[in-house]
Amino acid sequence: MAPGNSHDISARHLWERELETLTADAVGPVLTPGAAGYEDEIAVFNPAVTHSPAVVVGATGPEDVSLAVRTAGRLGLNIAVLNTGHGPSVPATGDTLLITTSRMSDLVIDPCTRTARVQAGVRFQQLVTSAAAHGLAPLPGSSPTVGVIGYTLGGGGSATMGRKYGWAADHVTALEVVTADGEPHRVSADTESDLFSALLGGKSNFGVVTAMECALFPVTHLYAGTLCFSGADARAALESYRRFTATAPDDMTSGIAFLDFAPLPGLPAFMQGKPVVAIRISHVGQGDEGGRLIAPLRQAAPVLLDTVSVKPYTEFGSIGMDPADPAPAVEHFGLLTEMTESTVDALADTVDPHSGNRVNLIDIRQLGGAYSRPPATANAVGARDAAFAIFALTVVPPGQDVAAYANTGLELFDRLAPWLSKRKHPGFLSPADATGQQTQKAYDPDVYEWLRAVKTRYDPDNRFRVNHNIPPYETA
């Protein structure tokens, strides 16, 4: 912003004055490129998408968020939010003010109403541990380090109890949000219900959610874990899993994954540079019933590892064994309408060692059950008739360009085209889906138009556009 004429000088003075005021008034840090702590503040879990905002504000509460949003409005900056950095979409660049929420970690459990109030920086392990002290449990994904609010605003497909209770978004009772004018709102099914419903599925398009209230469930233990098989037995394991899911009760939430990673420290010997099939199990109920249900899976092929047992809910992270260390990776998502014998053949051919497939992880999770039920209060989470969600991840080797791997994994979806839904889901969108056309596929046509109307009311200038963007209607 070096001054060159009177307009440039005026803009420079405005920038300096606004930044000075924001720095003085905000409790959290206000950082610009080159400042100490800037790089740490903008760091993400998946550095395939990296940020370089004009300014980053480390919010400590909703007051800091309001200050940051108002400042962005006066400076004409877009606004982006970074909760835990697990869900990359669009880079925040020099025309953006980035708000980070990791310092907002307040958490209150109400055992009488079986609810939790979480701020925007709370991660699932914190919530699960706190709720467990009261004999209660939320609906987490597979990773303990994922942020509760970002995950839930996308729908929230729980790896523990999703088929029993449905999408996490369906169990939210209130949201606290700062909209594009810097004003705080507390919204629910009874207060500003349009904004409440739009945020649940429409994600960060309408404001910065600073806190959320959600239901908890009286569950303390799971019959859960992983069955691992050699990649050579992929077809047998997958066919067994297909038959298993055809009759699985809603108490059973499960998935199957194909893993093929380079040798890494900490991996068991049978996974060191060798393809592996992992079936992930989470059953809400008695261990003997869960054991009876998965007996055919245990007999599908020689088992290399069996960790399925009765576990305290606090160990939910051991089911998926998600990586804990950041690494750049290319992601692609899709939805399957069904899984047939022909689907099994196509998947088995894809993961065959001679196929030339470069994908490191193919993860398929069964939906159906409570996922397919309409919510008690309307929200924007759709595609409820999908049978499975599928996810392909490719780790970008050190020193190599992410762009060179951008299309890796798409060959999988080409092979699955006969069973691939034309729809997408707001919780299963990758950076490659951050286009108007792809984002629109995540919503029913009438829902998408309704979301645009809500966007026009609360963010007519589209300040919240650094995301899977839902644009407002043009206003006069």
From TrEMBL:
Q: Tell whether Phosphoprotein is among the UniProt keywords.
A: no
A GO MF annotation of the entry reads: FAD binding
Keywords noted in UniProt: FAD, Flavoprotein, Oxidoreductase
- Taxonomic superkingdom: Bacteria
Cofactor(s) demanded: FAD
Which Gene3D superfamilies does the entry mention?
Answer: 3.30.465.10, 3.40.462.20, Uridine Diphospho-n-acetylenolpyruvylglucosamine Reductase, domain 2
Q: Outline the extent of the FAD-binding PCMH-type domain.
A: 49-219
Q: Does the keyword Protein biosynthesis apply?
A: no
Its recorded name reads: FAD-binding PCMH-type domain-containing protein
The species this protein was found in: Streptomyces cadmiisoli
